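Re: that backbone. Tokens:
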């Protein structure tokens, strides 16, 4: 069963009893701030020809810059503390930026949990002469010591490097490949999965295809509706096959 709501994730998680979920797979904000140290009103609007940089996600009038650009370390730690309450045995995968990796790992250490770092390798699309360009994103798995991965015939599922092209025809600028989510699901015994930052709905599609129960939410109404339509269209397409 796939249950999707349009609401704040902290409100959603607060409704569930301790230890209700088995697994979290999610893609929280990357602590993005176009003008670090400045309030929202003083941030400069992007002025490049890049369709990605000029997308709705990074518009000063858009949801990300108005609501999520202020999602900082304090908010992330508050979120992580609540996930510890609602997971039966801690097992979670967080898509994150390079700058966030130490936050997740330090939190895991403080809570006596294990962690491992996976990498999504994707084709290089933007060259930046000031730094090494990003052709990778990180996925931090945080888990209890006794949480083992299940056996599978597909050995690639255990590889820390996940090589996938970026999705085409995106409905969300940070949309993740469904294939990566399926690889994660194939090595877990989870029954109840939680995605508190649904975004484009990639995790919902993966859970639907593999038969996992999913509870998910998205705060932005436009992305919520787009993800819901994406899932519905996908379900209809499968019925025609």
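Recovered sequence:
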């Amino acid at each position: 069963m796939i249950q999707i709501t349009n609401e704040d994730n902290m409100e959603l998680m607060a409704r569930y009893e301790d230890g209700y979920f088995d697994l979290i797979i999610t893609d929280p904000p990357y602590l993005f701030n176009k003008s670090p140290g400045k309030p929202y009103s003083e941030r400069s609007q992007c002025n490049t020809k890049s369709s990605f940089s000029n997308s709705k996600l990074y518009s000063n009038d858009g949801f990300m810059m108005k609501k999520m650009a202020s999602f900082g370390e304090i908010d992330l730690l508050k979120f992580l503390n609540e996930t510890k309450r609602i997971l039966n045995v801690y097992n979670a995968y967080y898509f994150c930026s390079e700058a966030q990796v130490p936050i997740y790992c330090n939190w895991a250490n403080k809570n006596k949990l294990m962690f491992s770092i996976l990498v999504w390798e994707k084709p290089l699309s933007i060259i930046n002469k000031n730094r090494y360009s990003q052709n990778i994103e990180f996925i931090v798995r945080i888990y209890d010591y006794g949480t083992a991965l299940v056996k599978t015939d597909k050995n690639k599922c255990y590889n820390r490097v996940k090589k996938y092209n970026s999705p085409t025809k995106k409905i969300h600028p940070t949309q993740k490949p469904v294939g990566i989510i399926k690889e994660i699901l194939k090595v877990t015994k989870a029954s109840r999965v939680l995605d508190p930052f649904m975004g484009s709905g990639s995790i919902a599609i993966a859970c639907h295809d593999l038969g996992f129960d999913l509870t998910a939410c998205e705060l932005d109404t436009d992305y919520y509706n787009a993800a819901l339509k994406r899932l519905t269209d996908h379900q209809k397409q499968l019925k025609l096959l």
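The helical segments are 9-14, 63-68, 73-86, 101-110, 178-186, 202-210, 221-240. Strands lie at 2-5, 23-26, 91-96, 114-121, 136-143, 161-163, 192-195, 213-217.
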